[in-house]
Amino acid sequence: MKPAPSIDPADLLRRHGLQVTAQRIAVMNAVSARPHGTADDIADQVRSEIGAISRQAVYNSLATLAEKHLIRRIQPSGSPARFEDRVADNHHHLVCRTCGEVVDVDCATGSTPCLTAAQDHGYDIDEAEVVYWGECPTCIAASKENATVH
C-alpha cells in the first residue's frame, strides 16, 4: 500500500537541489497518478495537466527525477522503462506476461535488502530487485472464458 504523499513536489525538488518548474511538478504528479506508467503514459498525463510539452522534456525530467531518487525507474525484461514514486522502501514487482500490468509486491522480510546475496563480491549491497512473472486475474479469467467458448 502506497503511503499518502506528505511533502509538496516543489519542496521535494528544492530539497534535492533542483529548479522548480511546471514541467517537473507535472511529471511528478503524473508518475504519482500512473504508477508503473511508461514515459509515453507519463507524457500523455502531463499534456492533460499542462498542455503542450515535448516528449524529450518529459524524458529529461524523468531521468533527472530518477537520478535524484525522487522517482524509481524499473524495466522488466521485454518491457519499456516504467516509473513510480514509491521510493521510500525496497519493494518488488509482479508483471503479467499477457497484458503487461505491473503491481507492487512488498518485501518478504521488510528490510533492505530483502534478499541476501550468496556472495557479495565485496559490494556494500543496499537494494535487491526482484521481478515476479505470472498472469493477472483479469487475463486468467479471459483465458478461462475463451477456453469455454471454443
Describe how the helices and strands are arranged:
Elements: H1 9-15, H2 22-33, E1 37-38, H3 39-50, H4 55-67, E2 72-74, E3 82-84, E4 92-96, E5 102-105, E6 131-134, H5 137-149
Parallel strand pairs: 4-6
Antiparallel strand pairs: 1-3, 2-3, 4-5
What features would you describe in this structure?
It is a single chain. The protein is an alpha+beta fold. The protein folds into 2 domains: 86 residues, Arc Repressor Mutant, subunit A, CATH 1.10.10.10; 62 residues, Dna Ligase, domain 1 (2-Layer Sandwich). It is 38% helix and 14% strand. A 3-stranded antiparallel beta sheet has the order 1-3-2. The protein has a 3-stranded mixed beta sheet with strand order 5-4-6, with no helix packed on it. The chain is flat and about 55 Å long.
Name the descriptors:
disordered N terminus; three-stranded antiparallel beta sheet; Arc Repressor Mutant, subunit A; 2 domains; 5 helices; 150 residues; Dna Ligase, domain 1; three-stranded mixed beta sheet; 6 strands; alpha+beta
